[in-house]
Write a structure and sequence with these properties.
Blueprint (H helix, E strand, L loop, with lengths): L5 H11 L18 E10 L5 E7 L2 E6 L4 E5 L5 E6 L19 E9 L2 E8 L8 E8 L2 E2 L3 E4 L1 H9 L1 H4 L6 E6 L3 E6 L7 E7 H8 L10 E5 L9 E8 L5 E9 L8 E10 L13 E6 L10 E9 L5 E8 L5 E9 L1
Parallel strand pairs: 1-18
Antiparallel strand pairs: 1-21, 2-3, 3-4, 4-5, 6-7, 7-8, 8-9, 8-10, 11-12, 12-13, 13-14, 15-16, 16-17, 17-18, 19-20, 20-21
């Protein structure tokens, strides 16, 4: 594995040099070194192509981009349940073929009339990827799965060149707080990384089948640094306090939003969106994900969830990675910002 060498640090610093010098730290410490270090890995052969993870109370909920199931894990990362989200037309070795897969890429928890739900989104990159799912969650028990057709909402985004440019729509992350739903569109050649903002008062009636798809309140481009001269694209998102967001991104050498490619590494960073700004925004803090020996973690992180603050400072987080070969990796990270 490639180590964090002076040349790699220089490359990242050059990429970051256009970024704001303002220093944001969730731990309110501007002197803490920026790092995201892998402390544990768990490989799953029963979860194909993990693409999203969300922690609610003492359970982790995991989706795969070519799996028909929502997997429930306990705090020891053991699979304790799986809930079928859809009935696929084709399945081979537990995976839905790429040509017809739903490409479930994003998951978040949100409150609807005081009840916690899991919202799961397809990427929107093909007609088979326009579905989403809403699953009520009552004290760890999953309720009836509601299928949602996102075709109208996604088509409006695809047709908006401000969102997609000349590329294909590729939704990769979602996060919710009491007021807003944040949605990430991932860079692919011809486009750029975008953050979309929906008002909860408008998106919830749509999710419940009570109103047409709303328009995004704001559409905002984001500039991320390269890794090894490969552009990085958003891959996951979760909310933090006061509108701040924790995101993952990865560098994958691919010509479009559908095909897989060589992965050069992943990033973790903090965003503090300013929707009054007109220019591309820049994350306040970014870290290349590394192994404990300092080498670059070569996996493609797809999603992240914070677990708890650490007594020695920083946070413990859990992320998932898709190896593109049917296996999945769960990664425990120590974050210091």
């Amino acid at each position: 594995m490639k180590r964090i060498t002076p040349s790699l640090i220089y490359s990242l610093v050059v990429s970051l040099s256009v970024f704001s010098s303002a220093c944001f730290s969730p731990s309110e410490s501007s002197t803490t070194p920026i790092s995201a270090v892998v402390t544990k890995k768990v490989t799953f052969t029963d979860i194909p192509s993990a693409s999203g993870i969300e922690k609610v109370e003492n359970r982790y909920y995991v989706i795969g981009d070519d799996s028909p199931y929502l997997f429930t894990l306990n705090e020891d990362f053991k699979i304790i349940a799986k809930t079928k989200l859809l009935e696929p037309k084709e399945v081979a070795d537990g995976r839905i073929p790429k040509s017809v897969k739903p490409d479930l890429e994003a998951i978040t928890s949100l409150s609807i009339e005081g009840e916690t739900h899991l919202l799961i989104l397809g990427s929107g990159a093909t007609e088979y990827r326009n579905k989403g799912y809403l699953v009520p969650l009552d004290r760890g028990r999953l309720g009836h799965v509601r299928s949602i057709d996102f075709t109208a909402l996604y088509q409006a985004l695809q047709d908006n060149q401000k969102v997609t440019g000349s590329a294909t729509l590729n939704i990769e992350g979602v996060a919710a707080n009491e007021e807003f739903l944040y949605v990430l569109h991932r860079f692919s050649p011809g486009g750029q990384n975008m953050l979309l903002l929906y008002a909860m008062e408008e998106i919830i009636p749509f999710l419940m089948g009570l109103s047409p798809a709303p328009a995004a309140r704001h559409i905002q481009p984001w500039a991320l640094p390269d890794i090894e001269n490969i552009k990085t694209g958003f891959s996951g998102l979760m909310p933090y306090d006061n509108g701040q967001l924790l995101f993952t991104a990865s560098a994958e050498e691919t010509p479009n939003a559908i095909l897989d490619g060589k992965v050069y590494g992943s990033l973790v960073g903090w965003m503090s969106p300013d929707f009054a700004a007109t220019d591309a925004q820049k994350p306040q803090q970014i870290a290349i994900v590394t192994e404990s020996d300092g080498s670059v973690y070569q996996g493609k992180l797809e999603s992240i969830t914070l677990v708890e603050p650490l007594t020695e400072g920083g946070y413990q987080a859990v992320a998932v990675a898709d190896s593109d070969d049917g296996r999945s990796e769960l990664v425990v990270l120590k974050l210091t910002f």
